[in-house]
Design brief:
Length: 514
């Protein structure tokens, strides 16, 4: 039998899936390549922990594959042979290694998808793109499901996924008789149960941090490089999953929307980095949670598990589908025509608004904030202020440990900034101080007064909130969920409306001083 062609296989930094069929057995004529490249460190300014965590996880994965007998080529950022772009490195390696074939795993980002397609088409050897075996849906599935529809309904997508995967189902009915348990979920944190201490790892990434600094990779945020807290291999990722099931899951749904000065993660799993790098498979996370409930139904209520399953089986897969349905135009959408630069305090955390100081400060310190901090504090403020979605996107894509474009962009541009004109969200996620006051303990510790709309010390969220509806009244007048707010605004006495608008105008004019 002729020997198979000598093959070079590319693994990207977010494709660290040890259970992929590629790795079932070591093949003599196959070499795997992973590379640290400026192309990836520089396309947006990243949090320093994000750069370190991706490189550390890639190095750990390369070591794992080598130990399993695979042939692995690893290009460090400071390797003199490194051409710092994926196509240039691939061309170089193909020449040097006399490879007769090139294969790659399908990238999740449009930018890389295009780049690798173009590269493959231009190579002198045959090539193939292979599925990552990670997601539960096909790239184009959501777009096809909602073809011709104005809105992509997450709820109907989620119910289909529940049925298709047989998760939390009694035959063809939802377990417990309901698809969602929102009424039991979403309480503020009331101290009834102690907040779990997050499981953190102490990965020593000093060499990576020093290498990135020596190469003058522009980063921001803080790092203790002797103790990087994020999981960098599957063993650590599984430990984080177990810790979540033990400590977080029993109260996840109840407190999933709560925010607290006492904890930046409360009962959230902090699994997004492990999931997005594919160290964990979404179905194994879901099944582990469902099984934990089966074993301890009195300790872990159905509503807690459903709340969590919805995030991964619903939102995560849905957002990926939205991304592929709307790209590449998606990345340019700005439905509301917003154009303000991002306020400076997003880069420093220095503001007297306690909610923003907490959410931004925590993000800069730890490269993490939970969903409601992202949506209802930093995202809400940027939307109310009228910040350009490009600036908002660049910040979210840089700051979070889990930020990869396929999931960051739909969450930021569509869900949080309404820049898609409402395909994802039925209404803009804006709120006055009321929501933050109800769901957190931030307002009691703030220099501003959550109860005031205008005048000395009035909370900026309040006047900006009403001014948002006044500014966009024509756009939203026919939206049934927003029209009511506009009518409420119209009922406010004219003098008071004037005072509120004046307050908003002065806050926006001096936004960096808030
Ligand atoms: P948990 O609350 O424990 O949820 C479990 C898992 O569910 C998460 O790890 C995540 O994989 C998934 N999930 C939950 N909500 C969503 C969602 N809305 N979309 C997709 N998956 C979800 N998530 C990212 O992974 N990367 C991003 O870059 C990102 N950017 C965001 C930007 C904005 C403006 C907003 C509002 C949300 C963003 N999210 C992003 C979604 C969500 O906030 C994070 O997935 C979550 O906070 C990660 O923390 P966790 O692992 O503790 O999540
Ligand atoms: Fe934020 Fe306003 Fe509450 Fe202060 S009063 S924490 S600015 S919502």
């Amino acid at each position: 039998m002729p020997s198979p062609p000598a093959t070079l296989r590319l693994i990207l930094g977010d494709q660290l899936n040890p259970n992929h069929s590629w790795f079932r057995r070591a093949e003599r004529r196959v070499a795997y390549v992973l590379m640290e490249v400026r192309q990836e460190t520089d396309y947006v300014k990243h949090h320093v922990q994000k750069v370190a965590a991706f490189f550390a996880a890639m190095r750990a994965f390369a070591a794992y594959l080598s130990a399993a007998g695979h042939r692995v080529l690893y290009l460090r950022l400071d390797d003199p042979q490194n051409r710092q772009s994926i196509p240039a490195n691939i061309r170089n390696l193909l020449r040097a290694g006399k490879f007769e074939r090139f294969e790659y795993l399908l990238p999740d980002e449009h930018r890389l998808d295009l780049q690798l397609k173009e590269l493959a088409a231009a190579l002198p050897v045959p090539s193939a793109a292979v599925d990552t075996e990670h997601f539960l849906t096909e790239r184009r599935e959501l777009g096809e499901l909602f073809a011709g529809k104005k809105r992509f309904l997450m709820e109907s997508f989620y119910r289909r996924m529940r049925k298709r995967c047989g998760i939390l189902m009694d035959g063809d009915k939802p377990a417990g008789g309901s698809w969602n348990f929102d009424a039991e979920n979403r309480s503020p944190y009331d101290g009834r149960v102690p907040i779990p201490v997050p499981l953190v790892f102490e990965n020593d990434v000093r060499d990576i941090a020093a290498m990135a600094a020596a190469a003058k990779v522009a980063t921001f945020g803080e790092i203790d490089a002797a103790r990087l807290p994020w999981p960098i291999d599957r063993t650590q990722a599984l430990a984080l999953l177990s810790a979540f099931i033990r400590d977080g899951l029993p109260h996840f749904g109840t407190y999933q929307d709560a925010m607290s000065l006492h904890s930046g993660s409360l009962f959230h799993s902090r699994l997004s980095f492990a999931l997005n790098t594919k160290m964990l498979h979404p179905l194994e996370v879901i099944e582990a949670c469902v099984q934990a409930r089966q074993e301890a139904p009195r300790r872990i209520g159905l509503h807690q598990v459903e709340g969590f399953v919805r995030q991964i089986l619903g939102w995560r897969e849905y957002m990926r589908g939205v991304y592929w349905a709307l790209m590449p135009d998606f990345a340019q959408m700005n439905y509301l025509g917003h154009d303000l630069p991002l306020p400076d305090f997003y880069w420093t955390g220095e503001t007297r608004m306690r909610c923003l100081a907490e959410a931004v400060g925590q993000s800069l310190r730890s490269a993490y904030a939970h969903h409601i901090q992202r949506l209802m504090v930093t995202g809400n403020f940027a939307l109310l202020a009228g910040v350009h979605p490009d600036e908002v996107d660049a910040w979210y894509l840089g700051v979070y440990i889990d930020a990869v474009q396929w999931v960051e962009l739909p969450n930021t541009r569509a869900m949080s900034q309404f820049a898609d004109g409402g395909r994802v969200a039925t209404k803009p996620y804006v709120s006055s101080a009321n929501y933050i006051r109800r769901m957190s303990d931030y307002c009691g510790a703030c220099a501003y007064d959550a109860g005031k709309r205008a005048g000395g010390g009035a909370c900026p969220f309040n006047s900006l909130y009403w001014e948002f509806f006044a500014r966009h009244r024509e756009t939203f007048a026919s939206n049934p969920r927003i029209g009511m707010m506009i009518r409420t605004w119209d009922r406010v006495a004219a003098a008071e409306r004037k005072r509120i608008l004046k307050q908003a105008e002065s806050y926006r004019a001096d936004i960096n001083k808030l």
